[in-house]
Amino acid sequence: MDFFFNPKGIALIGATPNPLKGGHAILQNLLKGFKGKIHPVNPRYEEILGIPCHKTIADVPDPVDLAIIFIPGKMVPQIIESCAKRGIKGVIIESSGFAESGKEGQQVQKDLTNFARKEGVRLWGPNCMGLVDAVNKNVFSFVSPELWEELIPGDVSLIVQSGMLSGGFLIDCMSHGTMGVSKVCSIGNKMDVDECEILEYMLTDPHTKVIGLYLESITHGRRFMEICRRATKPIVLLKGGKSAMGAKAAMGHTASMAGNGAVIRDAMAQAGVMEATDFHQMMDLCRSLAAYPDIKPTPKGRVAILTYSGGAGIISSDFMENGPIEPAVLSRQSKERLKTIFPQWMPPSNPIDLWPAVEQHGAEKAYGLAIDAACDDPGVDAIFIHAFAGGFRLSLDLDKMSQKAKKMGKPVFCWLIGRQDEARIVQLESHSKGIPVFRELHRAVECMGAVFAHGNRTISVKSEPDNRNDTMAHDTIKVSLKKGKTALDEHLSKTILDACNIPVTKEIIVADEASACQMATQTLKFPVVMKGLLPGEVHKTEAGLVKLNIESRDQVKTAFKDLTQAMDGKGEILIQQQIKGDLELIAGVVKDPQFGVCVMVGLGGVMAEILDDAVFGVAPLSHSDALALMGRLKHQKLLDGFRGAKGVDRDVLAKILCALGDLALAYPQINEIDVNPLIISKGNPIAVDASIIQEQ
Amino acid sequence: MDFFFNPKGIALIGATPNPLKGGHAILQNLLKGFKGKIHPVNPRYEEILGIPCHKTIADVPDPVDLAIIFIPGKMVPQIIESCAKRGIKGVIIESSGFAESGKEGQQVQKDLTNFARKEGVRLWGPNCMGLVDAVNKNVFSFVSPELWEELIPGDVSLIVQSGMLSGGFLIDCMSHGTMGVSKVCSIGNKMDVDECEILEYMLTDPHTKVIGLYLESITHGRRFMEICRRATKPIVLLKGGKSAMGAKAAMGHTASMAGNGAVIRDAMAQAGVMEATDFHQMMDLCRSLAAYPDIKPTPKGRVAILTYSGGAGIISSDFMENGPIEPAVLSRQSKERLKTIFPQWMPPSNPIDLWPAVEQHGAEKAYGLAIDAACDDPGVDAIFIHAFAGGFRLSLDLDKMSQKAKKMGKPVFCWLIGRQDEARIVQLESHSKGIPVFRELHRAVECMGAVFAHGNRTISVKSEPDNRNDTMAHDTIKVSLKKGKTALDEHLSKTILDACNIPVTKEIIVADEASACQMATQTLKFPVVMKGLLPGEVHKTEAGLVKLNIESRDQVKTAFKDLTQAMDGKGEILIQQQIKGDLELIAGVVKDPQFGVCVMVGLGGVMAEILDDAVFGVAPLSHSDALALMGRLKHQKLLDGFRGAKGVDRDVLAKILCALGDLALAYPQINEIDVNPLIISKGNPIAVDASIIQEQ
């Protein structure tokens, strides 16, 4: 991939002297920064902007390992062929008119991809803005050359599946001076090079500390996840097309398919990726993480809030409720130190309202002392400075003030409002010193929280799937799968679960009333449940094939008769123990088009209908993956028991979830597993009903 | 109140020629804009800034009806006395050192308030920044005179209980040019004039279209609510101190008591007030509502999204999910019109991705045609324009483009990114034309939603409490209250509820086993419940005083014996029908220090422990209030029934909630009512257990 970012020479196909055209802008951009050889290619010109122009790609002299193409889409395939012939390693195709333009374009794109794979030439795009490298001053893009005036080098690299957004956003962020960037990659239709490869490159890139992605589709879900899991750099993802409506919009854009919102959300959480919700917010998360990528894990980040406004202090505290950070409780020593600048009537506490102290001692002294106190306070993990630019004698030298904090490894964040001109100066200055500054209080608190959440991330998700011993009873599973139809009946499904060491209800198929009675009285004990298993019938309850609360031999006999009649002599009759539970869960397996086998666990019964609380994990799950999965249930405290009921044995539940994933991975013919309900009885989960669907 | 805003003459006490002092800044501000007479008062000077200075307030000549005070707190009481003597109508006290500074200051403030009430002089503040009127150019504040350079008149008035925030925020908003303001009132400790009076003034002020408030406490909750309910202008409230930590911070600030977060949240919703969460967000909500204060009610605002970036279109759609607005479905006519500028391969849909059309036809034509189509489309209620400033040939004349939309009564909102300098120009221009422009996509969608939510508000909350006939059996209630101790037992409590026509379980106190058996078999029918009522014992279940599932005469007898024994011969035994329900609710009444009698309804049973889903309404509730209250439950769809269970009769439930409030209002000695559970059985709510607590 390095020839895309650091080519020795570039052929620009579609170079033109017409200043209104993109081919001209690309050339201008190359001339401003690229240090290697530039070779315009266009049969109509001898030279452009003083550089010799070549008739064809074959004429371009060495060294040249990258081609940038900006010509009508129809002409692209032929040019790619010449590029491959000429020994070009990589081609960035910025033209549009491919898969996004309908069936014909889709075919062209497919053919090109096949060609590239065969010939070994790598293709970037099409339908993209190329790439910008603010550190090395490489702009391989038709983005406006005026961008150069404001290009701020930084630590954040971006991978963006939307041309206009990458270019437009870059101009916005650069000219507003809120952040710098390292590399910005617009990947367009990603017909060959995709987010995975670029992400891998960024993870080893010394100029990249944090990677932000805007994606509408994830081409290789599992590979993407694996790369993210291994990543030591923070990764922030904004996924477009999460809502039903958004997904509809995504279908029409960059020819992408938006995946199942819940699966992607959970897969990303499992891989330790931070999810963003909006464009600027993604940038804010990225620059915050770039400023403090290595926060030590801590249950809650304890924040000292230094404010000139009691009101802003209050709202800051409000925003921290239920998040990964909280207002710090100041030590006695800190309070004593603050007392020396606080008026007598004002007891120091956090948020530290410095306005009276500022009035009496000036901002420098008041804030300075407060920061020193917070730095020395072992109960403070981070410092949140509220600053005001342009008035009220509140001018602060943020850099000077935060030096001690940085030495102590305590991150400093700043909320800044004030006169636009002066605020802008403070903001630019602070950015260059690595202090994240925000205009909105909520965003500042959100980003502080993200930095601490990322610190904790390394604990909860950096785990490899265990080296589990395979304890499945494979013979039983194979026989059962063979015996079953597409939809295996409850008993067969549970036989397979049992073969995977998943607890299931005690049960047996009974041939007649007598053996049913015997089972009920001797083996299972009352109350029992009796069910009719009719091939192909998956909705047993609705079909009247479930008899609950059977308490006597008479009732067993009646149930047997009723079920036999209901099944019209077909099918089998199952008798099983009746489980009285404290909580109903649902567990199962689905196959996601992007991520493959995913294990699901959620609230069942009535709760399922109201709360819609289910989470997905990409299999195989490690034991800690499975525990983390349960922890992501919105109402996970239910698992700890309530009203005197015993909590779920989370280790046992974790083993069940791991086993479900392992089963589906070991038997690819399994398309779906549904354990519903998985009842928690005295703390132990037990599969009460189940259904396995296999491929036909 | 008008003398505060439009005084005939102003005495400035604490005027000084020292340019570093606030008393100087106030004078400068007055000189720049105030059209009436200005009278500096300071015994040490003959004149200040060329204006004659008076020794005492008594020396000030007519006309003078307002004094502004900026002198040390200790000297204030004496000056107020002189002001009252001199016949001054209003005094704005900007000095600090009152209730916020401890006990001594609290006493001074109390005395001053009493003095003012007696003498009829009105006091504004203390510990505040006074007021700024950008339309009439009155700045009665020590806020930096440089503010004047950027003061932008607008339609939004603010009432702010935080001095630094009002001043600082004003400078921030004005210099960033994102919005204009009408009046900004910093009310400080509000020892006399409070938010209610100023809010009432603003509601009749012709220069105010929307009122935004930042409050840490609401002094007179009910009065505030009543004013808001009657208001025809949108009101936006940012309440500081909602979290437990925030409330702690609020205690130390402006000497205010933060109320119960849930009660205030619901009381404001009941009164149709929009709640803000952050400072800039509050401003954004205010300016959006000021632009479009009269949107017609509609189930969902249907938005046409005109974008140059498919990605931004997708994210916009994502943000609309589950909110008050949704992406519009374009009519066939609209699609046909768009086809004329769309490339052939691209079927028009919403979000309307205009980039290819812009490339082919230019931004003006592409956007112009799309806006015309959206304006004419009966399925479109609002237009959301994504604009870019400074590049990509995307320059748009927003005003020109939106004229037709405005004529058609369709609000236009704009998301704008781009080069900082050019974006700023577009933003200022758009603001002056009344088009709300946002930098963050999410904020734009949120504000659009707020405008439509406000349109719907007028339906759901503009209702006066009904003229209900009092159908309470007052004799029964009085007797029962008299008979009970502080905590009335279940039976007495339910006797009172029954007297208010609230359905309760059939039940009776039984003296012996025989009558218990008779009741069980003849009146109640099995199964029954038996409970021991022991004076002062409120936790019956824990004390072993509840016997459920009694199915036979024998069990009745056993239960009777057990209960008698458990109560050691004291107490009474209650027998009641056992209700099998589909859903457990809790209902009740609490007395809030700010809002008085509040009715509560929430999920009960297990749900209560997990979901924390309860809402409050300030009594008396109208029938529609009560219906709206239920509608604010997060999981209100539970009320509609699930798993075949019948939904709650919402009208019956509403009557119960109204009756609970009426009961507590009619009998002020009732401090608390707790109906737990209120079981829904076949759609009908019935009080199964209840407890009324009265004052000792």
UniProtKB/TrEMBL annotation, chains A, B:
<dbReference type="InterPro" id="IPR032875">
    <property type="entry name" value="Succ_CoA_lig_flav_dom"/>
</dbReference>
<keyword id="KW-0436">Ligase</keyword>
<keyword id="KW-0067">ATP-binding</keyword>
<dbReference type="InterPro" id="IPR013815">
    <property type="entry name" value="ATP_grasp_subdomain_1"/>
</dbReference>
<keyword id="KW-0547">Nucleotide-binding</keyword>
<dbReference type="InterPro" id="IPR036291">
    <property type="entry name" value="NAD(P)-bd_dom_sf"/>
</dbReference>
<dbReference type="Pfam" id="PF13607">
    <property type="entry name" value="Succ_CoA_lig"/>
</dbReference>
<keyword id="KW-0808">Transferase</keyword>
<dbReference type="Pfam" id="PF13380">
    <property type="entry name" value="CoA_binding_2"/>
</dbReference>
<dbReference type="GO" id="GO:0016740">
    <property type="term" value="F:transferase activity"/>
</dbReference>
<dbReference type="InterPro" id="IPR003781">
    <property type="entry name" value="CoA-bd"/>
</dbReference>
<protein>
    <submittedName>
        <fullName>Acetyltransferase</fullName>
    </submittedName>
</protein>
<dbReference type="InterPro" id="IPR016102">
    <property type="entry name" value="Succinyl-CoA_synth-like"/>
</dbReference>
<dbReference type="InterPro" id="IPR051538">
    <property type="entry name" value="Acyl-CoA_Synth/Transferase"/>
</dbReference>
<dbReference type="Pfam" id="PF13549">
    <property type="entry name" value="ATP-grasp_5"/>
</dbReference>
<dbReference type="GO" id="GO:0005524">
    <property type="term" value="F:ATP binding"/>
</dbReference>
<dbReference type="GO" id="GO:0016874">
    <property type="term" value="F:ligase activity"/>
</dbReference>
<feature type="domain" description="CoA-binding">
    <location>
        <begin position="4"/>
        <end position="98"/>
    </location>
</feature>
